[in-house]
Design a protein that fits this description.
The chain is mainly alpha-helical. It has eleven helices and two strands; from the N terminus they run H-E-E-H-H-H-H-H-H-H-H-H-H. The longest helix has 22 residues, at 6-27.
């Protein structure tokens, strides 16, 4: 049995923040305006279809007409502008129509893949008590057991014993620029289900979603 100590976690966090700083410097061009101050400017902004495919930026039909015209997505969405409050009601309607909790879990994860802003509005709003058993225990345990069937989009980093000596390279592959929390697991003793290996990824993902939503 392997154990992850606080020292291991701190080492991963320290290494990741070092990588994160390098990525930030690569992504932004620094222009020195005088001897005492520097200004950072983004090299490019995300627009068009790429914007709609980015779950961190996509708002779906909640984009206003002005936003659609400015961001090059006018005509790529249905013409009606729908508020997030209405979107939330539609999401809950789809969740209620699902046949079982695993389907409800998949519905929420698919929403997270498309529109993170809406996902966290749903999770942190008045439906939190109702959705807690879906994104957390007991449903997340079933989702872990069925992880190979419900896997749609990478949600974490998988580091195996065969990656010794290459962990830095793996961490460099993560694309998020601002990381405030990391949940680490070795995949063992998942909710009393035993060693689920890579299928245990559902646990740290669910915990981070709850931390973010709260």
């Amino acid at each position: 049995m392997s154990f992850i100590t606080k020292r291991h976690i701190c080492s991963v966090l320290s290494l990741y923040h070092e990588i994160n700083f390098v990525k930030y410097q690569q992504r932004y061009k620094v222009t020195v305006t005088d001897g005492h101050r520097s200004v950072t400017r983004p090299r490019s902004s995300i627009k068009g279809v790429e914007l709609l495919r980015n779950p961190a930026l996509n708002k779906g039909t909640a984009f206003t007409l002005e936003e659609r015209q400015h961001m090059g997505i006018h005509g790529l969405l249905p013409p009606a502008v729908v508020s997030q409050d209405v979107q939330i009601l539609r999401v809950m309607k789809n969740i209620e129509r699902a046949q079982d909790d695993l389907d409800r879990y998949n519905e929420l994860m698919n929403l997270s893949d498309r529109n993170e802003k809406l996902f966290y509005r749903v999770l942190a709003g008045r439906f939190l008590k109702k959705l807690m058993p879906i994104v957390s225990v007991p449903t997340v345990g079933l989702a872990c057991q069925k992880y190979g069937l419900v896997f749609r989009r990478p949600r974490g980093l998988f580091i195996t014993i065969h990656d010794k000596g290459h962990i830095y390279d793996i961490l460099c592959n993560w694309t998020e620029q601002q990381v405030k929390a990391i949940v680490v697991t070795d995949g063992e003793r998942i909710l009393g289900l035993g060693d689920l290996g890579a299928f245990g990824m559902g646990i740290p993902v669910g915990k981070l979603q709850l931390y973010t939503g709260n």
